[in-house]
Specification:
about 375 residues; alpha+beta; Nucleotidyltransferase, domain 5; seven-stranded mixed β-sheet; 11 strands; about 45% helix; elongated; Znf_SWIM; zinc; MULE_transposase_dom; zinc ion binding; SWIM-type domain-containing protein
Amino acid sequence: MSEADIMQMMNMLKSEISTSQIFGLLANQAGGYEFVGYSPRDMYNEITRQRRQIPGLLRNLFWSDGISQLDYQLFGDVIAFDAIYKKNKYSCPLVIFNGVNHHKQTIVFTAALIVDETTDTYIWLLHQLMFAMKGKTPTSIITDGAMTISNAVRDVFPEVRHRLCAWHLIRNATSNAENPSFISKFRKIMLGDYEIPVFKLVVRYVGSRYDLTSFVEHFQRCVAHLRFKEFNADYESTCGVPVMQTCIELLERFAAELYTNEIFLLFRPFLSRVGSMRVLNIENNDDCIKYIVCNHGRPEFLWTVEFCQEEMIFMCTCLRMESFGILCEHIVKVLVDRDICEIFRLLLLDKWTKKVKPALNDPSGFSRDAVVISR
């Protein structure tokens, strides 16, 4: 493609001739489509490249509304972000920062259209995230492992734990492993019953034909769909209590009234397994009591639960509470052994409870105004 062709294309664009019409005009000048010397895709790519080089032209767009900012204050301890390509008229990468709410549903914190995926661009994005979210830093960030993203995270959040996305790990395993049984087990271990990535939902609402304004509008329709799912889940969790199914009814009922339905259904199997657990030994120390717990008939598999009476703290060597924020069957066994019929405050992760949103109280005057930043 010659410089003259490029100049002619850009002049036609300035005259408000559509991109599809431009290729037809160039083909007419050349005497036929076969004589143009490049494909329509080559022309689209070159136009995109030229637009990105125009001074004063919009390069990056970042937006977040008030509800997303509120969600971040509650659920922004762990965030994930990645780029999805060519879902808008200009083929700009779309970056979505998302997390998980109290129903284990995907929620969107913010999104951005960027001109490139350089480290500098991602650094700019992360700084805008901090500005929009009043400076709150996440504890963990999950990405696809791209080097530019990793460098940006290291620069802006040096103390934050950076982990790879399970979905990308599964995709790599599927591409490189030829054992279906291994892939199935690997997928189950990595994902469990997690929701599909937010990108699979986004593509249902946005398409490459949309201009900037239409794209943002349709993207917000996708976000509205996610919020409607959360609204329904809130209603189902608030109205009614699940039928009790275990023999530890008081503790089960306490958990049902405390957790959202989705989290309670994750927790109840641990209650059910308590019947197959037994305490092998109890060690009384000055600071805490140690319980050695095992499965019935399987004394070779041991877990140690430490209970500090003064602080009312429970810790188990399985680390499920630290990993998922949900009590393990070993701690529940100790609760039952001590005839405790409630879950102590220190054993709760607020984000999994029904009252997490009404509990938000920000005396600093948290603003729900939408944030739109461009450069």
